[in-house]
Amino acid sequence: MSKIIASAAIRGAHKIYNRAEEMYKMALEKYGPDQEVGFPNTAYYLPIIYAITGIGVSKIGEMGKILEICRKLIPPPVKERTHLPYLAPALDAGMATFFAEEIIESIRYLEEPNLYLANSEDVTETNIWLGAANDLIFRKRGVEFVDGTAPGFAAIVGAAPDPQTAAKIALELQEKNLYVFMCAEHEGKRFAEQLIESGTQIGWPTRLVSFGPDISAAVFAIGFACRVAMAFGGVKPGDFRKNLIYNKDRTYAFVLAMGTVTDEWYANAAGAINWGFPTIADTPIPQVLPTGICTYEHVVSNVPHDHITQKAVEVRGLKVQVSKVPVPVAYGPAFEGERVRGEDIYVEMGGGKTIAVEWTTSKRMEEVEDGRVEVIGKDVTDVPPGSRLHFAMVAEVAGRNFQEDFEPILERQNHHLINQAQGVMHIGQRDIAWIRISKQAVEKGFKLEHIGKIIHAKYHQDFGAIFDKVQVKIYTDEEKVREILEKARASYEHRDNRIEGMTDEGVDVFYSCVLCQSFAPNHVCIVSPERTGLCGAYNWLDCKASYEINPEGPNQPVQKGECIDEKYGQFKGCNDFVFKASRQKISSVSFYSLMVDPMTTCGCCECIAAVLPMCNGIMTVDRDYLDITPCGMKFTTLAGSVGGGAQTPGFVGHSKYNITQRKYLKGDGGLLRMVWMPKRLKEELADRLKKRAEELGIPDLIDKIADETVAKTEEEVLAYITEKGHPCLTMEPII
Ligand code: SF4
Ligand code: ZN
Fold first, then answer.
1. pTM beyond 0.85
2. Which of 20, 299, 603, 667 has the fewest CB atoms within 10 Å, counting from its CB?
């Protein structure tokens, strides 16, 4: 602990102790040792003292031994510059401070019977100080700390610069479902009074609890936490270690020091650190950054008011809970399968007609402001019904424990998260996203920013454990969208390439993915190192990371088991798994074939491959190619006929990346069977195609593969490949 803080905390502890001793002597004289003392209607005596020492103080006479403990705990006063290498002396001084303050406050209950309202949840016109919670209030409110309704509390000490700032901070804390416990004053002002002045309703029902006018009322907050551990955590009185640890791990509390930090405040701040509750100050007091007792930093100072809530939440490691998805339309799984068609479309993005790209990427903690959503460019309200927009959405995620590997997992959720908004349809992922927003949704006030709000709320709800903050930027301006597209593609490539070099033989476990069962109820992807999920967004590593994050989730390990057929890639373990996961619809799947038991396809595959019998080869088409292909169907028609989760020999859905993976349709002859691809797809994959072609001993294979510029029908493909001497012409018959 900073030596300056430590010496100030110790000085503060001495001052508070002296005051407690004085009051004790006075009370002993005036009321005698048998006079009952305590906080009203509680079985927990003076709760901090009770929780930590096991001593239930109920009479004035019993206070003597507590003061004696305090004297032992508080180190002798230290000079300003004395070096204190350990936290311990200041922590002890802080603990003694709380004991002394409980003595002070309990004697005040005797001396100033009207100071606190004592048994009321609400403040009154003439008194706003609620004092210690009685057991009735405590039980009702304390249980919320356990069942998750309230993650913890912010203990606000002092006052904001003005009532508006106070109201804003209080609201931010309320939105995080935190209780706000208030005490002490700064330059004659108090936070609770400021809230009243700003017209904010305070009291237990709004979670804005005005404990008391002085710093010593901080014990009502800490005492509350101690009681939670004893009442709901089964921690025995006197088991101080367990009480401190229980609160450190389960009660997300912190001190917001607003205003001049006095020696007494320091003493209280040091005390709070014992429970793992850090202090965040708006003044430039020395910081105590090295972590140790608190989850992260102990004291962070000079934080501007518009960042103080966010900072506190971050320092305390509080996971943000967003209980409601803030959109003007209904939201829930019930709307996931809903379509938005023709006349109903207000605006459409992607789907091959405009660019639509979604990218989730990680940033440093200080670069992300949680919950911030920006729309850069035209929004739905700026265009007439029936319009198209380009669309790029970047979700920037930060977290102390966030790993780059989690990016694709979050990103892949966008599809079903956005789809759950009524009147919004979402298909695809990555750079083949496709979004429609209905007229009805726009009428209700749905705008692009709400897509960002959905992402913020749902990422937190579903994946709060792996990240801390997310902000969303949505671009609709073509130039900007293209810029993002490029960055996103570089990132997809980087993700895809991580799997390079891994083989199916090299692992015993594949992973399932049933994320798409909400659309194709019998569909299950089995993802192996050499067969990336057909949506292109999940490779084996992603599924593995997803399983680690959420062991009950959509990606389960599948033991490969015995290899039944090496050529087609059939494994006993996988077949058994698929049989169950497809609800007994599919009993065997080949990993490397479209002719024999091909894997099923859901609606979101990047490409669909089809056999071209006349050519003795196969073709593949990606979603962005809108024309009829040589197999006689457009992509959409193909997707419609093979994409429902059924097995359709002769066709298979796959990712773009998979085309250049070594096992791609190996059972049917692999890449050497490829006779037609859209030109753009060929160009996109050119480098990797070339590399694979060289490995296969036909370096100019890519020139032998036809595209729409040379062949639109199967006959034209045949003519082209014959002229080029395509290797498939001499391979064994595919049918
Ligand atoms: Fe998972 Fe397959 Fe759907 Fe991709 S296509 S999300 S891998 S089930
Ligand atoms: Zn799918």
1. no
2. 603
